[in-house]
Design a protein that fits this description.
This protein has 145 residues and is mainly β. The protein is built from no helices and 7 strands. A 7-stranded antiparallel sheet has the order 1-2-3-4-5-6-7, with no helix packed on it. It starts with a strand and ends with a strand. The relative contact order is 0.19.
């Protein structure tokens, strides 16, 4: 959901869900943890408005923060035994381009980068203190109310 304060500034709230497998290499071998990942973030948006509607293209930049919740599925032949649900803070940055089709419909292409500490699922053997990055390119339809 995006709310525009004026032509330049907006705030956005996002929720996302995905499933992925964290692949760790420990002293005792590979340790993979499949997890459901819930993403809740809030962003501030800067939109570069066109002068009096002269163009249909509207570029934007975004920055924000939120949380990622990693919830192990206990799959992969039991390799996730002992893994526990864990939340990690996430920093979000990105940008994109809106193309206006009509007063209420736009096509949006964008990119969101997520920067967060590698999840260890509360297992001592996976604690590394390392940070990682997830790239989220997207294309979609926007409906304006």
């Amino acid at each position: 959901y995006r709310f525009h304060f004026n032509r330049w500034f907006a705030a956005e709230g996002d929720y996302g869900y995905s499933r992925n497998t964290q692949q760790d290499f420990t002293n005792s071998g590979n340790f993979n943890v499949q997890s459901n990942v819930h993403q809740v973030t809030g962003d501030l948006i800067v939109t570069i408005p066109s002068p009096h509607g002269a163009t249909r293209l509207h570029p934007f930049l975004l920055a924000g923060a939120g949380a990622l919740m990693f919830d192990p599925t206990d799959k992969l032949g039991g390799s996730a035994i002992g893994a526990d649900t864990q939340a990690k803070a996430v920093f979000v940055y990105g940008g994109g381009l809106d193309y206006t089709i009509s007063a209420h419909v736009l096509v949006r292409t964008g990119y969101r980068g997520l920067f967060y500490e590698w999840p260890d699922f509360k297992l001592q053997s996976l604690k590394s203190g390392n940070w990682t990055h997830t790239a989220q390119p997207s294309v979609g339809i926007v409906i304006r109310f």
